[in-house]
Predict the 3D structure of the following.
Amino acid sequence: MRISLKSWARKNSLWLFHVNAASCNGCDIEFVASLTPRYDIERLGAQLVPSPKHADVLVVTGTVNPLMRERLKRIYEQMPEPKYVIALGACAGGGGVMKGCYNVSHGVDKVIPVDIYIPGCPPRPEAIIYGLMKLRNKIEGVENE
Amino acid sequence: MSSDESIEKTVKETTAGLIQYSPEGLVPFGPVHPALKEPEYFKIILEGEKIVQIIPRIGYAHRGIERATQDRTWVQAIYLVERICGICSFAHSLGFVQTVESLTEYEVPRRARYIRLLIAEMERIHSHLLWLGLVGYWTGFDTLFMWIWRDRERVLDLIEMITGNRVHKSYATITGVRRDLPENIERHVQSAMKYLSERVVFYKEIVNTEATILTRTKGVGWISPDVAIRLCPVGPLLRCMGFKRDVRVDDPYAAYDEIVPEVKTSTDSDILSLLNLRLEEIEDSIRMILDAITAIPPGPVKTTVPRTIPKGDAMGHVEAPRGELFYFVRSDGGNKPTRVKIRTPTLANILTATEMLKGHTLADVPVVLTGMDPCFGCMDRLTVIDLDEGKEWQINGEQLRRYGIEWYKNNKRE
Amino acid sequence: MSEVWISKFYELKDVKISKEKNRIMIETSPDKIVETCRFITTKLGIHHLVTITGIDEGEKICIIYHFWGQHNFVNILVRIEKTNPRINSITNVVPGAIFYEAEVHDMLGVIFEGNSLMEGRLLLPDTYPSDLPPPLRKEANPEEIRRRMGLE
Amino acid sequence: MISWIFQLLVFPGLTFFVWIAFAFEWLERKTAAKIQSRVGPLTAGPKGFLQPVADYFKLILKEEIIPRYSDRFVFLYGPPLYFSVPAIGAVFIPVLGETGVLSHTYDLLFILFILSFSVLMASILGYAASGRYAIISIGRLILQYTSYEVPLILSILAPALLAKSLSISKIVASQTSIWYIFYAPISFAVFLIVSLAELEKPPFDIPSAKTEIVAGWMTEFSGRALAYIKLTKNLNYVFLSALATTLFLGGPTLPMTIQEDFIMSFASLLVFLAKTFGVGFLIFVIKSALARIKIEQATSLLWTITTPLSFLQLLIITVFR
């Protein structure tokens, strides 16, 4: 299988921007834990960047409430193409245990398009690494078609 | 008398300043900001690099959980309130469960009370270590951050062995805990605690000797205790001002009447003393865990209770890692709560933190603001406050977005 | 300690006092709330206001002020009319109450006279429909709120 | 002529230094990871060696967003210009012999110009992007620059004073017997501290402190512009390490002469690389062990400690030589 320079560079350099959209912190601390020595997603070339304009992947956690919904849209619009979105956790995937509360959206995909869903309440760091690997495969597949 | 008046004046200014500001020198801090792992918005008004006023705009993590508890049964509500916050999740479920227990006549088995203490203290260690690592991150000391988070994994391993989960434990239940301790857990607990106590000594040395950390934290965020006590702070923030107040001692729950915690205080009321205070609390928690694991009595871990809870009002509080966590529960005798009121430590502390920041520079914002160990997920479970001009917003989301773009355009080159 | 306090509470007029373990409940009328709070902070020396709870009881709104000091909860309970929910603010006596009062205002629509955060629409998301009742009122319907805020 | 252009653009000029810049970033990330007991980049290339290359190509291939209210001209042409600053400086560094590809009798002065010009370029770029964080960041950057410029110049003057020349090749040539680090150790230490400030590394990463002002003046840049800026930062890193090597560690000079020209050049290259990576490694380790300080603390540290120290060094040199 021939791998183009484009997809090789893209899949090996996933810069993450993390948005906590009204989450309970559970997913966020597990996401941060996946950067720390035991899990260390920098092995895959992923690193946390401070500005959405530098990022390739938007990692969204939480139950996107109306205040954060507008912010989330603006952040997504600020990211340069190609951009990918990971919905981290049950709340971001479809509302989770908060389903039916008056101030939550049922999932990130109601607001912005999502590429990878990582379920769990909260997902373990291993699951986050698995999700990143799925995203790498997806990038490769899209580019080779 | 004059000192009383000056205190009164400072307190007045703090609360009045929440709504008065001028747009010059305004710097937004958040809601999505690298220093905050959670969304929260602070308007910072600057003169050069000096902070004149800081206005919190809380509500970005509001979900409406208090309303949602009214639509769930008592047992479902435990798992819902647990998900208010991922860091102090056991404290939330414990606070709720104990408040509900005080409405019933069932006794919690002694073994379950010990296990509750064990998990609560492990959670305190995990939360304090997490905060300490993030202090390293905020001051730009990534190495410290990585080391501390590596050591934190040891506590999470123990929590996972006992409860089955790393973050949301789903462990406390009405009159007890859901499952018994696994076999041979003493060995694991003892080895992990031995390792951690060595590391805590090492971190204490780093914090008190590393010059760059000292310059960033010593004397930063000082606040007069007389002013602070009027603003009703809780937890380590209150203890670092010299007030000896801890719910575990003042109103013992779980097994805290048998294994008594030592309340640490400090009188410096700055960020460095907060760092030392939390490290000392970790040491004390390690001692309590080691005491509890040897003294743990045999017996059942829960009793069976009916699905309905007798009519009445009850209030209870626990000492979460961040301070006093308050629960009020009203039952009408049915299988669902009529009203659950939660007051989290961060909401109590935020007023004090804004007062602590005045007169400091922009570089101190992440250290001080997060020095109180905020947990906005907790705070916003109900509260949404827009302090912006106090004017009525009657526009929909899309208009708001356009308004934001326009605002950015007009205020761009100030 | 609590016995001494209870004997002191009888200095206040028109109060109902009940006690269960270390929870003291004082029921008083809404116009005496500031006076009662000042009594607690000055005479008893309790400065720590834990929180303010608001409960919709159908006909009336019940507001409970929880104070904690020296191993005892001291709660002040007042009931106000739901049709005209107004009460004096205690921020002059307990400055830390400012956010708690604002929270009750947000969730139940109670107006605290004298609190600086009461002006205009202060609480809930900006898109919260102003004609709907506040979310913790009995008549509020989460489904309707969700639909009106465009979350469905 | 063709040979000269080859030297300028490929080896030992631009391309050579760009590859060292990539290697520096890889080494920096690996060292930081090792100190933090992590693994660091692993999947891109052997041991993750191609990680910086992947980052660079990915950024080049990304969409570039130009904010509507920014200065379009500067936004488009600023980043390549910013990149050219250390790139021009690097060709003055002697790699194969005692002279660089370009050289001049007073080229040390030109190096000083290069060092200050890169800060100027950064502030122009930040101002063109026009964001609140960028403005604060530039204020800090310039404040920091004004406080470290004096110790920077004074510490560079020490080798010049020792060699009694402002020409880099003369300074290198007079270090064949003994390196200037032994004559001017204080100046070397000051130079290292000031390098951290010039490179915006901890404890002087104040202008790009991500927990205070997001990414500082780089916040608004994306895609191609960001690729240039990142590369320039790494190239600056290499440039300063190479400069320290040249001025204090004897550059590529060997203790003996070898008759064969090719072997001689190759040995010089190896010596140069070893020293440069050594200095770079020293900087990585220092920065990993420190927290960020505040701008007023940085200013007072640079003015009250490093400036008098470098004066003292100059005094010692003048008295004893």
Observations:
- Residues 54-320 of chain D form one domain.
- Chain D has 13 helices and no strands.
- Residues 65 and 222 of chain D are 6 Å apart (CA to CA).
- The first helix of chain D runs from residue 2 to 9.
